[in-house]
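ok so for the tutorial part 2 we go from a plain amino acid sequence to predicted structure tokens. step 1 is just haveing the sequence, like this:
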Amino acid sequence: MPQLTDIGYIRDLLSRHGFHFEKKLGQNFLINPSVCPRMAQLSGADKTSGVLEIGPGIGVLTRELALVAGKVVAIELDERLLPVLAETLGEQENVTVIPGDVLKLDLHALIKEQFPDRPVQVCANLPYYITSPIIMALLESRLPVESITVMVQREAAVRLCAKPGTRACGAVSLAVQYYAEPEMLFSVSGGSFLPAPKVDSAVIRLNIRKNPVCEVRDEKRLFSLIRAAFEQRRKTLPNALMTAGYSKEENLLALEKAGIPVTARAEQLTLQQFADLSNAYDR
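step 2 — the prediction. this is what the tokens look like for a chain of 283 residues:
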């Protein structure tokens, strides 16, 4: 079985299939042989579980997942890679490759069909340019999965795992914490990829909560308030939250009801305080 992290083999493989990297798709294939085995082991998958992989590339991570999981289903957007994957994964009987866009597929139906009696994990090396949209789509759709293990740009990893009250914390940090418990696993240097990006990456795992960490009457309003607060994080909340469609007077009243100082700014609030604030509005 050829080594899928060998640069010479990769170049020959891609050349034979007439494949050229598409910068707009954020394609960077792993050439560090230690990364994918470690990622697969930390994904939480075992022989009783199924793994949904997003963007298998040439199948480096897919092979490692196939060794630890009972079944792997890989979704690939770039149809030019399908014949490549047919070659590299041809011997993996527990792997199914599905062409399509993960943001457009009915993942609930796919999981029900492909993993009817298995616990499911998600594992992926995500393109930098679409990291947050994919992660938030997976979380907001409340898929029946136990965890999401992804490799992302290190800067994004820090932001996704940031604790409230820290400089790195932003709207996406709180959104992730609402649905999951995030943890940083390990860093990956830019030299681990072909072509090598100018930035480093990191692997994180989002352990999905059975229930959101706090109760709110209106989730849409909660996230609207969080986005508005962080979009103007230098402003105090009575002023920042006006962009969410509420008057300054409404904001002052809600802050008082929630027991939050009117001088507070976004980064000073916990997720629970944002939930209390959201529940304090009359409309």
